[in-house]
Amino acid sequence: MIRQCNDGDLEAICSIINGAAEAYKGVIPQDRWKEPYMSQKELLGEVEDGITFWGYEDSGELVGVMGIQTVQDVNDSGSGGVSASEGEQHAIETRANPAFRIDSEGKVSAWSKICEELLGFGSMQMLGRSPLSFVSKPHQADFRDAMLRAMKGESVAQKDWKYYTLQGDAVHVLAEIYPVFSISGKVQECVVVNTDVTHLKQRIKRLERYTVESKERLRELTKEYDLLKSNIANFIRKKEE
Question: Other CB atoms closer than 10 Å to residue 136's CB: what's the count?
Fold first, then answer.
């Protein structure tokens, strides 16, 4: 269940944020890393700056949070003034897993810092963009199908997809997709929560290669053994003759 967080959730929010940061220690740039990654004082500052936190609750426990802040899109007018359009959302995803949101038009509406660290795309690059831009072509049809199911109110789990980073490197994920309902009960967006399984995939491939090589070696050794037995048998027969 996705719900709005309250003051009683501050400790859990901090724990989730710091847990997410810890999971990507070594990936997060050194100049942005500190311990704790976010203190309760800093979190309160974020709330005072207008960030509203929403949480994903599982069996009564808060397991993921997303902070949303309405900001202005500011452009240089050339005369020292600014022009602004209201309503754009800048999202800060603080779930332990890389996550992003997709709106009803199929565009990215929120992009987490963890996604930025994992895939290399900044939020300004991704907001308003189709997520298919980084989804591997063989997985795009399944990705679209999962989004459509989520937009109809269905939760979709255990999708095995491959993404590509800004640098073109492959990232394998297990994804879960959840619908986000408005107050009226209609689905307005969906959240894609990813678990990076790239290293696991690489290990499995190495094991598969090792298994194939081992089987081939076993076949070779079996042939050598059979040949040896045949030679020994021939040698014994000749001696008996």
Answer: 15
